[in-house]
Design goal:
The protein is mainly alpha-helical. The chain has a three-stranded antiparallel sheet with strand order 1-3-2. It is elongated. The relative contact order is 0.11.
């Protein structure tokens, strides 16, 4: 498992670790039941504090991405994809609600907003 830490990023190191592991799980690179490195092992390999990795693992466990058992280690949880997709949908709904409010306030038609959403969805660049 390769984690790349950027000292120039605006994200704290533990969030960089968390987001990269989540991405590996969502892409299928890490499957349910796969073990992930121990906190000490990962901390040593990416040259950060064990406490930083511990914070990342705690967040991953809280969010349902990993399960940790004392003496056995940490493993990818079976429920993580659905949870992550639900969370991402909730975030998208918040943005869409804001866009709808802007549209209503400024007399932008629903058809135009729908057209714009389709444009951004199909061509993200």
């Amino acid at each position: 498992m390769e984690i790349i830490i950027s000292s120039n990023a605006n994200k704290p190191i533990y969030e960089q670790i968390t987001s990269q592991i989540k991405a590996m799980i969502m892409s299928g690179e890490l499957q349910a039941g796969d073990s992930i490195p121990s906190m000490r092992s990962l901390a040593k390999s990416i040259h950060v504090s064990v406490i930083t990795v511990q914070k990342a693992y705690e967040d991953l466990q809280r969010d349902g991405f990993i399960d940790t058992t004392v003496g056995r280690g940490s493993f990818v949880s079976a429920q993580n994809r659905e949870f992550y997709q639900e969370e991402q949908q909730r975030i998208a709904e918040e943005h869409l609600q804001a866009a709808a409010e802007i549209g209503r306030t400024n007399n932008i038609s629903l058809a135009k907003l729908t057209e714009l959403l389709a444009l951004f969805y199909e061509d993200p660049d």
